[in-house]
Predict the structure.
Amino acid sequence: MDTYGGGIEREYRMRKKTSPLMALFMGLLGLNAVFQMNRHHTMPEWVPASFTACYLLLAAQMVLYMRRGRTLVGARGITARRALTERSRAWHEIYDIRAEQLPKAPTNARKWLTYLYDTEGRRFVLPHMDDWQLDDPRSEVAALREAAALHRGADWERRPQVEALIRRRAGHHKAWERAITGGVVALVCGFLLWVALLFTMDHPPVLVLFLWLPLGTFAVLAALLHWRWESQVPRALREP
């Protein structure tokens, strides 16, 4: 984190580098998966080609995020810069800034993330304002809120109508996340089933296992979870 002149100007960027061994391990793991898929000649060409393209796009996005991603704070507001996009909010559009603890986070994962909430109930993560890059995210957020009070022109007070919007949007956002996760799990299960069927069938149903199964799982979960959106609201946001 860099500050300029002791005022509101701040820049939160990646200062603590990720472990080279972990990056190497993840890279080799992905390359091995690409190699294993391409060596099976019975698989349609579009399957390994699609997987390879997705892997390369994700790797490129990660590299760009590490180099370009940052949170910029100034007198006009806050800008969250990611790999390819930017999201900005002026101070009068910002409802709150909160450092929130991630429940059941693994030992080697981030425990705290910082979210910006706008007056429409939308929220997004502020890059590198977490416990990987900051020693104490909660204290940093408290100091930032104090420094920004003059620029907002209003107190950091809770508004029931905005809190209701936050809970509703958070529930639907979590529903999309879980539906996507379910689709990915279905895709992995489809791949494992395809491998097993290679020993019993000449032509396993590739299109069903690699396309319709994950898409169908995603559609069913999305519909069900959006119907039960209240159950998807994070515990920290359930209380007004």
